[in-house]
Structures are given as C-alpha cells and as structure tokens.
Amino acid sequence: MAANVSGYKLLPLINMATGGMDFYEPNDFPQLETPQTVAIGDVNNDGVEDIVEGSLTEQSVDILYSTATSSQPPLITQIDPPSAPPGQMVTIQGRYFGNDQHQSRVMFNGKDAGWVDYWSDIMVRVRVPAGATGGPVEILTSQKNYHYPSVPFTIQMRGDVDGDGRITVKDAVQVLRAIVGMKALTTEQARVADASPLPRVPMAAFGDGQLRVDDATAILKAALGLIPPSAMNP
Description:
Mean pLDDT: 77
Number of helices: 4
Distance between the termini: 56 Å
CATH superfamily of the largest domain: Immunoglobulins
Number of domains: 3
Oligomer: single chain
Shape: elongated
Largest sheet: 5 strands, mixed
C-alpha cells in the first residue's frame, strides 16, 4: 500500500511477478488530501486488516475499516453462566463470530440451539436448547463445514438443588429453608431452584428471578410426580 501525495489517494500495489517485483494498481482509495503515511492492521479487532492513513498537512488520521468477513474460525473465550438448565439464557463471548448470524449455528454438545436472541462478532446470547446434554459448546459458521474450538458446558437439572441428579422432596425443603433465611444457596443452586412460573410456550424463560414458595411447590410437585419431568427440564 502506497500513499500518493500529489494524487490525493492511496494506491494498493499487488506484486504479479513470480520472481522479483512487478506491481499493478487494481484500485485506489481517495481519502485525505495529501496522504503521507499509511499502515495496515486489525484496528477494530475483528480478524480483518484495516487501513490507517495520516496527513501531516491536515494533521489528521483516517481509518478505512474493512467490510470483508474474517477468515478466522470462531473463538469462544467464555460462557456466562458456565452451567445452566435448558431454557436458561446464556451469553457466549469471544471473537470472529461474524457481525450477523446468517447460516451460523450454536451447538450444545451437538444440539442446535436454534433461535438466537442476539448475535455480534464478539458476543452471542442464546437459550440452552431443550434436550441438550453437558459437553462442548461450539459455533459453526456457514463458511466451513467443520467444528471449531469449543468450550465445555454443564447442563443443570432444574429443581435438582442438591445436585444429586434427581428432583426429590429434599430439594423442595432446601428451597423453603433458603426462603426463610435458614440456608444460603449458591448461585448455581438458586438458578435451578427458580422453577416457577413454568414457561407456557417452548423456549420461554423459566422463573421470575426470585425464590418464592411457588418455586418450592413446583419442585415438590415434580418430586411427587404431580407434574411430568419434561415440564421442569424440557
């Protein structure tokens, strides 16, 4: 890339020679008057190189952001929370997801999450899909048909407050004790204890973000078989 001071433009020079140097100019970028310096780098951290040009005469700097799609595979750095029951909204953070979802998918141990609440190049917000099991979370893009680096994720059972893999009367008792201040629940325990109200439509949110007697009642009903297990954990 060269700065043409007299022509008021930037010139990309592509070397067409197999040995040596033989440049041609495929296009130009008229920008600042009297551009004098130029640099290339990933300014906005999206995996695609951008152009930075400076003009000593104007005492200014201009940035030309590339609109190309990154060739980097999606990189997941964090999932918040790192464990959740089906239906819970989670936030996936990382890089190179793409600015729009297009044909990309979020997979929970091979289970397609389907609908996505929010998608950007560095963050995706999505609900844990019904029927998901613990394992790697991956983002598959439409550019390639192979799996990218993944992050492990744990599926929690809603109502299983003590984490023994079952919903029992003991779980309901723990929630009641927490409500009256006799027991402190961890963040993970409080998340699975928030079972009421049950969603009325598929993939709607569980609970209301608070622990109430209704939550203990829903867990007790599940423990006694008065509501099907699929109602608590679709």
